[in-house]
Amino acid sequence: MFSIDTLFSFLQVRYALSDRFHQELIETQNHGDSVTQFLLNTLRLKEEELKELYCQALHLEVFLFRDFLADEKLSRWIDAEMAAKWVCLPLSLQGNVLKIAVDDPFNLQIDKTIQFNYNFQPSVILIARKDWKRIYQQLYGQTAPAFFSDVPSDSQEAASLSAVSAPEQDELTAIFQAAVSERATDIHFEPLEKGLRIRFRVDGELHIHRVYAEECKYTFLSRLKLWAGLNIAEKRLPQDGQFTRVIQTEEIDMRLSTLPLIHGEKAVVRLLRRVLLLSSFQELGMSERVAGTFQKLIQASHGMILVCGPTASGKTTTLYTTLQQIDRERKNVVTIEDPVEYHLAGINQVQVNPKIEFGFARGLRSVLRQDPNIIFVGEIRDTETAEAALQAALTGHLVFSTLHTNDAPGAIIRLLEMGLEPYLIASTLTGILSQRLIRLACPHCSSFKPADSRTYKHYFPAGKNTPLPMIRETTGCAKCGGTGYIGRTGVFELLPYSDELRALTLEKADITVLRAAAQRAGMIPFYLDAFEKCFHGDTTLSEVFKLLPQKNQPKRG
Known about the structure:
The chain contains 22 helices and 18 strands. By secondary structure, it is of the alpha/beta class. The strands form four sheets. The chain has a seven-stranded mixed beta sheet with strand order 12-11-13-14-10-15-18, with helices on both faces. A hairpin with a 2-residue loop joins strand 4 and strand 5. The chain is globular.
């Protein structure tokens, strides 16, 4: 196994450890007790923090539980009793090398047993205790024994005279609690040259929450990686994962993305709050007219409906709200997602996994053999997925999906640019919904004033003789954190796919012609929907201008 002296030398740099502590480590190993448990108790570390120290000191990796299937044949080399006693598991056997996942890399008995009894060469990898329990049950068909408490007893505490207390353990939890309280959708952990900056994205805008000391760059990132089942020793490559935490009694799904930068790894955590799932189109911000038309479209028995917009524009939320309008008891609804963002009762949700070549297109072909009525494809990313989705719609299924385009007519151009046959698009597409998110004016610090006459006449020349509408202006206050806004709502443009648009698709008409035909089909551009919300007092004019190309904004002065 590994040298206690190497570990002690590494720990001594970080903690004020005495020679007595060194001797206690050696005695713990010689007596056959767990060095890992001893260090958890004496240094007051969390398991993930200790495993990170092991990785750095011993150049080990942490086993990733995802996508692992235990091989029952391996239990002949390490049986259930041995695995429970030493907290280890056999993972694979290649030649005479037996790969073993261990909780304590200093257990001398494992090394001796494998080498002398079976003449195998052990190859060691670390494993989180929660993953050890899962695989133990999978491999041996019985419940794994419980561990000793990580909280030290009075005698253990007295024995740790030479150890200093670790940094505040609850700081990361405090960050998540603050993010939830401030309604953040994303948390950014950004490494600085000498520190770590935490930023929250609230209502689409980033702001600094706090800057932490240098050591937090490593402890926070290690814990996040372990929560998400990532390799904490890998710092050179980006990684993605998921985990769930209970924050303020609310269970929240979280997506983690890491990216190596020059000053360390950056992590972004997206908070997917289930309580924010909406039950009606009006709650999303749809007008009665758009909601009514969209409700009719989703009642169809077949065809394709696309929801378009940039990243983080609320497309997935809109589609989940749509699925809640469908009779899930009488229809077989299947989703194919990457990742599954929200868990919704009554539907079958599939998580794609590109690592094992199980992508959207392959998943969709498999779903078609599951007798579906309605299929939700998380995103059309390539031609293969787009063609498979359109073929599914053509064969009698109602298909929903998302696409990254600037507006609804642009979705037709995007599908043509992907190389899809025009007849296939024209035969299956039934509607396109494009959307954006705008911030809602803070009711505590905003006031009404008449709209600027020049701006109003620029966009509404037919209303030049009508009284100017009253619009909100905000100043910022403590309630909204000085931003002038609290919350967001959607603005929408819905394009029912008319016969004229089908003919233009077959002709491969350009975007200008398609946009003109879209308005003749009844599409109201989303910037006009934004103006309507502004005149209704929901938002401000500056938020509306963000949706407009610069050339369409009125001249000032």
